[in-house]
Amino acid sequence: DNFCSYCIVPYLRGREESFSSDSILKQIKRSKNLLTREILLMGQNVNSYLSKGRVFTDILSDVLNEFGDMRVRFITSHPKDFAIKIIEMMAENKNLCRHLHLPVQSGSDRILSLMHRKYTADDFREIVRLARKILPDITITTDIMTGMPEESEKDFEETLNIVNEIQFDDAFMYKYSGRRFTLSRYFESVSSEEGLSRLGRLIKVQQEIKKKKVLMLKGKTLEVLSERESKKSKSEFYGRDSGNRSVIIRGMNIQAGKLYNVKINEIAGLTPLGDIAEEK
Predict the structure, then answer these.
(1) From the CB of residue 169, how many other CB atoms can be counted at a distance below 10 Å?
(2) How many CB atoms lie within 10 A of CB 212?
(3) Which of 105, 104, 169, 164 is nearest to 141 (CA)?
């Protein structure tokens, strides 16, 4: 229901609809099996959930209480609706994954206003500050657009500034692409070449940040949920930790759907590799 000026989703999907807590719990029960170890709550904006007076933190509590032996994660959050209570719940419940995907889209207040995002860059900074104060090891990822119509070099520099300042663990970065029905089509456009150039500069900055962050994992032990066997070796499995980072697990007799404590002793490119320290 936000109708961001560049987004076609509201026109294709219609107004937001929140399913009742009972229907969500029943759907999970119908869908899970003996191998299910993780539940993903998904919505275009989970933080605007509202059903019969119940909000998103209520649903999180219901799912965590009902399925206490499973990991729970969610996507996607919107900064204007985000409740810091969610981070407090992460700190209190180890089964609620310590990952927050929070799209910033731009570091320029002028562009955020044109996007109809309904928050400022400082609003975003404050959410991140509080989240890291409550949970220092939280993983924070984001979405960022370049080449939004009307975006100046100064606006783009402000985006680079917030990326350098916040130090996201990862980011989905993309160039603006016009969509029918959207208001942004009527703004003064930025050339495709300039949008791509800015995207390349942004990717270079963020990749360096991610590399630094990944290298800091070496020597640490992560709790990793194994997902699938590597095509290269039967003694390697791909998995994800609570922060939604891809991890390669090394060891014999690894099973999909199991939780392992993995000590990271090598970094391959941007992917941590580790040996099993303990099966959970």
Answers:
(1) 21
(2) 10
(3) 169
Q: What is the pTM of this model?
A: 0.93
Cβ–Cβ under 8 Å, residues 146 and 197: no
Contact residues for 189 (Cβ-Cβ < 8 A; gap 6+): 149, 178
Which of 246, 212, 224 lies closest to 37 in space, CA to CA? 224
pLDDT in tens, 219-244: 999 999 999 998 888 889 999 999 99
Q: Give per-residue pLDDT as tens, 193-222.
A: 999 999 999 999 999 999 999 999 999 999
- Residue 142, preceding bond cis, omega within 30 degrees? no
In the chain, what are the domains?
9-215 (3.80.30.20), 221-279 (2.40.50.140)
